[in-house]
Each structure stands twice: as structure tokens, then as C-alpha cells.
Amino acid sequence: MSRHSKERRRPRSRLRIFLFIFTALVLITLDARSDEGSLTKIRSFALDAIGPIRSASARVFVPIGNAWQGITSYEDLENRNAVLEAKLAEIKSSTLQIGEIERDREALLSLLGARDTLRNIPRRTARVIDAQISNFERTIELDKGSRDGIKVGMPVETGAGLIGRVSQVSVTRARVELLTDPNFDAGARLVRSGDDGVASGKGAGKNLIVNFIELETVVIPGETVVTSGFQGSTFPEGLLIGTVVDVTPNAVQDTQRITVYPSADLDRIRWVSVILFEADASGPVLVDRDFPEPSSESGIGAEQNGNDS
Amino acid sequence: MMVSLGATLRVTIVVGLICLTQISAMPHLTIAGFVIDLFLILTVISGILAGIDRAVGIGFSCGLLADLVVNSPFGMNTLVLVLVGWGAGALAPQLVETNRVLRSLAVGLTASSGVALYALMAWLIGYSYDAENRVELIVLITGMAAFFVNLFLERIVKWTLFIEPVGYPSKV
Questions:
Q1: Contact criterion met (CB < 8 Å) for B35 and A175
Q2: CB contact under 8 A, B70 and A203
Q3: Structural domain that includes position B148
Q4: What tens digit of pLDDT does each residue of A114-131 get?
Q5: What pTM was computed for the model?
């Protein structure tokens, strides 16, 4: 290419770069200004489109990935194994005790004529399809979507406790924002004192922080923290968040900063329950049980509507 | 710039395949829990081998695809990859005729800078993300991965962009 033609091309080249940058800035602005706009729809469409590809590829790459993890993170896996074995021993010893407490609790609830609202909220079991595509997001993708009654904002838990909330829904897929995400906030309650605060995520691998707990409240490490479920909250009352590991008083603000270790293991999630609970509803939302049964790749009952009711 | 149908087709195929690999295989083949960003690495290699013009085009396409499949603010990946393509392309005249290891080193360093740019951009627009406390690790791992990925992806990019073995692109 001659020097002359290169020089002639330069302004066009700059214009092209400027147009690309301008388009990107316009997209960022549009995304920031619209909650449920056309960009969200395009993303939902993309989520549906790539869903089957990711599901199919997961079958191939999960075993390869596991083998790869075994090679690259062997020491980490050994440590995890040791921690899990210790936890299992601890759980075994407390299972009998929990059974007794649970029976007492149910007896008391029936005596009071009260209803265990959390148990009566329908749930939808979903399989975790895949891990994150980018390092700058930590969401998990589920094999259930809006056709299964899942909506943005619904809480998601495993048997061990709350793991996050639904952040994006398409027809067949849903994405969950984990509770360690810095954008995550939830009303939290200390079970022992009944004092309420706000639990916030602080990033991957970090504990949650609960703020706005009064300075006079006695908080003990090991104490259980659950969702407070205030009116309008996206979480029902009583979902297990984690346990207190540290307490830092803030005399200036007259509050305490509580560090909470999440009870659910966020690293290896395979199955989750989406709690079909909506923020603005006065009570739990009962979802039509005649939802078309989606073709589940899981092989496990896709539905757990009101499983305990 | 005159771009032939063949060149466009090749770019489309390669960007499509990279996208497919990124969404299907890469989430499972992590290093220390971090995903290797092939979109970023492809943009950087294109810049270093073919200059600004093509790198910003590929960066723009890859960025749009990334924006479709990840949850960050829409357009952020596009903006970062266009800027990375621009930066990598500016390095092209100094690097095209060096040996492959040096080029891989440049790819690694530029990819690391791309991650840092992403973090900076996120901070500027007030986007919080889960890995905020581990950006330096992502920078390091992406740089190392880009170094090795370049060793085999470079050939594919040369084929895609009709680049002569000497290094600099001939006419398309």
C-alpha cells in the first residue's frame, strides 16, 4: 500500500474508531437508563439461544473441567475435602438434636395456630447449567425460566441456605446473582436478638457484612443470621443467610458491623430451589401448578411446587 | 478499506468459533477459578498482527458478542475491546517482524492491560462486580494465558486476516 493511500485512509480509519466508541457509549447509556428495555430483551433472547449450546457442551466439558481442576487445584481440593469431612462429622452429631428442636417448633406453631409461611411458599427446583463466562460477573445459570414461573428478584437457595436472587430471566433460562456480589443487599435478622440490619455482598470469597445493628445488641460469633422479610422485601422471612464470625463496633455511628460467613457453599452449586416469592405481594405467591412441565435435561423432578405444604 | 467477501467470511467464522468456545468450553477450563477471555486475546492478537483498522473491527464484533452473553452493562465489553484493539494495533509496526515469543509476550502484556482497562472502566461508570478484590489476579492470569494462547491462535488469526508469513498484512 502506498504512503499516499495510507495517509488518505487515516481520517476514515479514525472516523471508524470514533463511531465504534460512540456506539459503545450509546449502548452503555441506553443500558443504564432502561431497566426492562429492548437491550434486556435482546439479552434474554441470547440467553435462550445459547442455553442449549451451553447445556450440551457442559456434558462434554464438565468432566474435562473436573479433571483439569483436579490437576490445577489438587491441594485446594484436598483442603476442601478435609473441611467437608469435619463439617460432616459436626452435622452428624447435631442431626438428632435438630430433629427434636424441629418437632418442638412444629408443636408450638400448631398450638399457636400459626403457619410456617416459609415452608408454604412454592419452590421450583432447577439445575445449575454452567459457570460464569466472564471473570467480571459471578452469576450462575439455571435450566428454568419464565415459563416455569420464575421472575426477576426471586430468592434462590440450596438446602444449606440462601445463595442469591434471580437477576435475569428468559423463557427457558434464569441467571442468579450470588449473595457475595457487591450489588447484593438483603434485610437480615440476628436470630438470637431479633435485631435487624442489612446484609451486603463484598465480593467473591469474602464474607457478607451486616450493617445497622444497634450498638447495645449483644452479638455472639456463631449466631445464626436469616432474612428479615420486611414488607416489600424480595426475600421472605427466615431464609438462612449464614453465621456471625466477627463483630466490629462503630461508636461514631452507634452501630455494629457484623461479618457473616454464608451458610451455602457458593463454589460448587449443582441444584438450587427458586422460591416463587414476589417482593410486592402481600403474601407468598401461589403459582399455577399446571405449568407445562419443561423438558428437563436433569432427569430429576423439575417441579417442587409447594413441596412441603 | 477494501475488504473481500472471503476475508469477511473468515473473520465471521473465526469470531463465531471463538464465541462458541468462550461460552461452552472456557467456563469449565478455568485457571485458579478464572475464565480465560478469548475475545480479549483475539482482539489483541489481531491488533498486533494486522494493525488498528482490523483490530478495532474485530474488537467491536467480539465486544458486542460478549455484551450479549454476560451480565455487565451492555456496551462495556464493546468499548473496552475497541480501545484494546486500538492500543494493540498501535504496537503492530514495532512487533510484526519480531519473533513469536516476543510477540506472545506483547500479547500477554496487552491482554493484561485490557483487563486493567476493564476494571478502570467499571470503576468510572460505577459498576460493581464480584471479583473486585481479585483484579490483580485476573490481570496476571489473563496475561499468562494470553502468552500461551497466542502461540497457537496466532496462526489462525494470520489465516483469518490473510497475513503473509513475514508478518504484515498483504492486500486483502
A1: no
A2: no
A3: 5-160
A4: 556 677 788 899 988 766
A5: 0.74
